[in-house]
Amino acid sequence: MKKFNKKLLNGALEKYSKGEISLGRAAELAKMPLADFMKIAAKRKIPINYSEKNLKQDFESVEEVFKKLGPVKAIKFFQSLGINKGDSVKEIESITEKLGKDEVLHGIRKARHS
Question: Who's near 78: CB < 8 A, 6+ residues apart?
């Protein structure tokens, strides 16, 4: 794991542990991949708050991509990220944790125009 700004990390961990921000937002504030943030939180005994509501929001996000792009372009978009049918959750996480918000938005725009 590479080194990160301790001040940003500690601030994000504090806000996350108090429930002030989401896990994803905390990782963004710490300027680090989500998986790295989760590992550090676990080492510091900060529980990961991933609720049924979070899961529902994630499914809704995927559904929104399909609605905006249509099924063919949505699948092409996910494939452009390296996500394929049959990939495990762990494989998908390892792919998506490396992506920034701007990369995802660029991919959606590109898929829309393909």
Answer: 65, 84
Per-residue exposure over 50-66, b if at least 16 CB sit within 10 Å of its own CB, e if not: eeeeeeeeeeeeeeebe
Reported as a single tens digit per residue, the pLDDT across 49-62 is: 767 776 787 778 88
C-alpha 97/C-alpha 100 separation (Å) is: 8
Asked if residue 70 lies in contact with residue 64, where contact means CB atoms within 8 angstroms, the answer is: no
Q: What is the pTM of this model?
A: 0.50
90-98 own/partner pairs: CB under 8 Å, 24+ apart: 93/34, 93/35, 94/35, 97/33, 97/34, 97/35, 97/36, 98/33
In sequence order, the 6+-apart residues with CB closer than 8 A to the CB of 11 are 29, 30
